[in-house]
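Researcher: Please translate sequence to structure tokens.
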Amino acid sequence: MAVVKVDSQRRIYIPKEVPFKAEKAIILPYGASFLLVPIPDKIIEIEVGASIQELKRRAEEKGKQEVVMRLKRRDRNR
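Model: Translation complete:
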């Protein structure tokens, strides 16, 4: 785990020891925390029948599930 600083303009600096390779990310509220999701460099466009709101809801849910899964895996490896 790494502690990050937030400057006066609310920018967050990710320490070099944290493996984060993306140039852009989405930050999502997750209870009392936040989820930082990297945006891939190459985005593939696809035709989807769902609304933008539905896609956002699905993405947030999938991100939350992935965080919980990673935290459980990390706790097992300690």
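Researcher: Any highlights?
Model: The mean pLDDT is 86.
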